């Protein structure tokens, strides 16, 4: 027989606090974090800064960056009742323009699409094919971000993917979006440290069997004293892709050229040899 105190304790465990929530306003929506499949959410452990409350509203704060394949928006995720908030980067691939990605065939060698209907539509560049292509590139970037995170490569934390939209960590400095490496002028000590970080990131990618494929000072963020690598949808298998070594050579040249112009004595061939050796 259950005592009154035990029954009261059990009842307390199942007491729900319902609060009315207003409908989203313009440029707002309820978060879909818990609506997507588990593999469409970021890896564990979830960082403490990320708001995951089901009552969170997401507000589009405007465009941070535009590109040929996708636009990046600032997105605030906030819980009105508690004041919890975070600002994310929302990368949205364009359905009708993503196929303009340069050297697309070289990056996709070794990738396979199982659905022949999708393959034919993509090759014909029909409206359905363009939509599927955008989804494929969004999914490719999502997988690359997760893979980089597991390999210890400094990338934005991937929050979730939903269709052609990826939500990820907004890399910031003092509350503002971090600048691209191409836009900064560091002192020599920081330059040396950044090159060591870059080498470490490239070694980690190579050891895990992949290469960025489009690495340049425009695809690296300078977040204070640390570097963060971005824009990874075209990441390729260093060994399986016949262009893998060429892409790596170009990545090394692009990055070493920037550091050399800032006065650091670096050799792209030496970096290439060190990085490609890590793959074996």
TrEMBL record:
Coiled coil: none annotated. Residues 28-277 form the RIO kinase domain. It catalyses: L-seryl-[protein] + ATP = O-phospho-L-seryl-[protein] + ADP + H(+); L-threonyl-[protein] + ATP = O-phospho-L-threonyl-[protein] + ADP + H(+). Its EC number is 2.7.11.1. InterPro entries: Kinase-like_dom_sf (IPR011009), RIO-type_Ser/Thr_kinase (IPR051272), RIO_dom (IPR018934), RIO_kinase (IPR000687). Keywords: ATP-binding, Kinase, Magnesium, Metal-binding, Nucleotide-binding, Serine/threonine-protein kinase, Transferase. SUPFAM superfamilies: Protein kinase-like (PK-like). It comes from the Bacteria. GO terms for molecular function: ATP binding; metal ion binding; protein serine/threonine kinase activity. Belongs to the protein kinase superfamily. RIO-type Ser/Thr kinase family. This is non-specific serine/threonine protein kinase. It comes from Gordonia spumicola.
């Amino acid at each position: 027989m259950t005592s009154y105190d035990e029954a009261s304790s059990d009842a307390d465990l199942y007491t729900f606090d319902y609060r009315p929530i207003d409908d989203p306003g313009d440029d707002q929506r309820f978060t879909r974090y818990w609506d997507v499949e588990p593999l469409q959410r970021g890896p564990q452990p979830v960082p403490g800064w990320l708001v995951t409350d089901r009552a969170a509203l997401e507000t589009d704060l405007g465009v941070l960056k535009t590109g040929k394949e996708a636009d990046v928006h600032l997105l605030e995720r906030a819980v009105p009742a508690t004041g919890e908030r975070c600002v994310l980067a929302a990368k949205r691939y364009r359905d009708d323009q993503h196929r303009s990605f340069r050297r697309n065939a070289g990056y996709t060698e070794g990738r396979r699409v199982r659905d022949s209907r999708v393959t034919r539509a993509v090759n014909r560049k029909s409206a359905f094919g363009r939509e599927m292509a955008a989804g494929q590139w969004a999914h490719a970037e999502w997988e690359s971000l997760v893979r980089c995170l597991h390999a210890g490569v400094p990338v934005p934390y991937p929050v979730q993917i939903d269709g052609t939209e990826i939500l990820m960590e907004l890399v910031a400095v003092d509350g503002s979006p971090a600048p691209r490496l191409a836009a900064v002028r560091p002192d020599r000590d920081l330059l040396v440290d950044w090159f060591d970080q870059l080498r470490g990131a490239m070694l980690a990618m190579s050891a895990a069997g992949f290469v960025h494929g489009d690495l340049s000072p425009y695809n690296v963020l300078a977040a204070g004293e640390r570097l963060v690598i971005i824009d990874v949808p075209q990441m390729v298998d260093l060994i399986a892709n016949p262009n893998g070594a060429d892409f790596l050579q170009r990545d090394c040249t692009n990055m070493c050229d920037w550091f050399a112009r800032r006065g650091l004595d670096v050799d792209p061939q030496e970096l290439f040899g060190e990085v490609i050796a890590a793959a074996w």
